[in-house]
Design goal:
The complex is a heterodimer of chains A (188) and B (87). Chain A has 188 residues and is mainly α. Chain A is built from eight helices and no strands. Chain B is built from three helices and no strands. Classes of the chains: A mainly alpha (188), B mainly alpha (87). Chains A and B meet through helix 1, helix 2, helix 4, helix 5 and helix 7 of A and helix 2 and helix 3 of B.
Chain lengths: 188, 87
Amino acid sequence: LTDRPPDSLRDAFVGAIPHLRAFAISLCRDVQLADDLVQETLVKAWQKHGSFAAGTNLKAWLFTILRNTYFSELRKNHLVVDSNGEYLERLSHHPEQLGHLDLQDFSAALGKLEPAQREALILVGAEGFSYEEAAQICGCAVGTIKSRVNRGRQRLAELLQVSAPKEFGPDATSESILARLPLANRHR
Amino acid sequence: MSAAKKDVKMSAGSGAMTATAPPDPKSKPEAAKSAAAESQSNTRLEADLQAHLGRTLKAVYQVLVDEPVPEKFLKLLDELEREESKS
């Protein structure tokens, strides 16, 4: 495709950009700020790529830099976080398999999660990192990531008004519970 | 041959379904329904639910990943690469 070797640093960075952006948008929930974060991450990572150990996970390394950049900006109060999911309006397209409003619902629920839980869910549940990689990216223990993922999942179910199945009584079937999920067809 | 395999699987599945048919939701729950069976079905419901939430999370996130990469990032990387080759 290009005259560069396929494993050039530039190509590896280009391949990671969509994921960096998605993670950044999930963190700060603002496309503009997310792009600033990605840009800063790319520059920082390029400058210190000598310190990147070959054979380790480049994507995890880039995520770590982006996350550190985000939290340092946050500490300096440079960022204002929009947690209502309006950022979705500014995206260029929406998936066909999910109605726009369903997306909004789910995204708003995600936005209400504790940031640490949301982050763990995104890294493990959406981005597909292992618990170990996620722990490395977040600079915490593997057990901490596991418990954040579990608590995040439970909270998400609560926010989407799906109580623990036992509350539905002995007659509840999985169909009736799934029908109550606000994700499928509710707005249509 | 894969069709035959599928047939075997399906008939085995439907046999299992009749054996553990769920109670008709309109009829009164049987008093004798064991707590163990109930908790087993709750565990399954919870697993179904979490699988559903997991799929939705992936789909929502995929929307973000599928966004086109702004040209400015590619230009930035070109620039970084050029600077590096100069030094």
